[in-house]
Design goal:
Elements: H1 2-7, H2 21-42, H3 46-49, H4 53-64, H5 70-78, H6 87-109, E1 112-119, E2 130-139, E3 144-153, E4 159-166, E5 169-170, H7 171-185, H8 190-204
Antiparallel strand pairs: 1-2, 2-3, 3-4, 4-5
Helix pairs in contact: 2-4, 4-6, 5-6, 6-8, 7-8
Length: 205
C-alpha cells in the first residue's frame, strides 16, 4: 500500500477558469486509456515484469509520456526555489524525480487486481481548469484505493495529469511541502536539498 501511495505521484497544478461539460468528457476518456494500458501492459503481464524492472520502467514511461510533463511536475515541486536553481540543477532534479517515481510507480501497479479497476462517471466539477476523474483500484491484498486524477487541457488540446489525490491525500501539496522542508533543513542550499530529495525518493523505491 505504501508503495502505491508514494509512487502514484506524478502531478501538480493550480486552479484557474471554469470549463464546460463538453470539454471534460475528454479528460475521462484520457484516464480510461491510461487505466486500460495499466491493466493490459503492466498488471496482466506482472509475472514477466516482476522479474524485469528495466522493462517494467520502460512500459510505465511509455504509458505516462503523453499525459505527464515531468519537467513541469518538477518545477511545481520546487515551487518558489525553482527560479534560484541553475539550468543544470533543474534538469538533474527532474531526472532524479522521474526515474525514481517511475520505478516506484511500476512496482506499485503490479499489486493491483487487473479485473477490479473502475473509472467512475464524472461527478460535479469545481470552477478551475482541472477536471477530476475518480478511479477505484482494488489491491490483490484486498485493500481499496480511490484515486482522483486531476486533468488539465493543454494549449494543444491534450489532457495532461496535473495532480493526484489518493484516499484524500493531496500529493501535489505534500511533495511541495516536503521539498520546502528539505530546503530549510539544508540551509536553503539547493544542491544539498536535491541530494536529500534523491535519498528520500530512493528510500521509497
Amino acid at each position: 500500500m505504501s508503495k502505491i501511495l508514494s509512487g502514484v505521484v506524478f502531478v501538480f497544478s493550480l486552479l484557474g477558469s471554469s470549463v464546460t461539460w463538453s470539454d471534460v468528457d475528454g479528460a475521462r476518456d484520457t484516464v480510461i486509456k491510461v487505466v486500460d494500458a495499466f491493466r493490459t501492459d503492466i498488471v496482466a503481464d506482472k509475472a514477466v515484469l516482476s522479474k524485469d524492472p528495466v522493462l517494467l520502467e520502460k512500459r510505465v514511461d511509455n504509458i505516462l509520456a503523453n499525459v505527464v510533463d515531468f519537467d513541469d511536475f518538477s518545477k511545481k515541486v520546487m515551487g518558489k526555489y525553482y527560479r534560484r536553481a541553475s539550468p543544470e540543477q533543474r534538469i538533474r532534479f527532474a531526472s532524479v524525480t522521474k526515474d525514481t517515481l517511475l520505478k516506484t510507480y511500476g512496482t506499485s501497479l503490479l499489486e493491483l487486481d487487473a479485473d477490479r479497476i473502475n473509472v467512475l462517471p464524472l461527478g460535479p466539477q469545481g470552477r478551475g481548469k482541472e477536471t477530476k476523474v475518480d478511479v477505484d483500484f482494488q489491491m490483490e491484498s484486498g485493500g481499496m484505493l480511490n484515486i482522483s486524477f486531476f486533468m488539465e487541457e493543454s494549449k494543444k488540446g491534450v489532457w495532461m495529469l496535473s495532480n493526484v489525490v489518493i484516499n484524500n491525500i493531496n500529493f501535489g501539496l505534500t511533495f511541495r511541502k516536503q521539498f520546502g522542508v528539505m530546503m530549510e533543513q539544508n540551509k536553503n542550499d539547493i544542491e544539498l536539498a536535491i541530494s536529500a530529495w534523491r535519498e528520500s525518493l530512493a528510500k521509497k523505491s
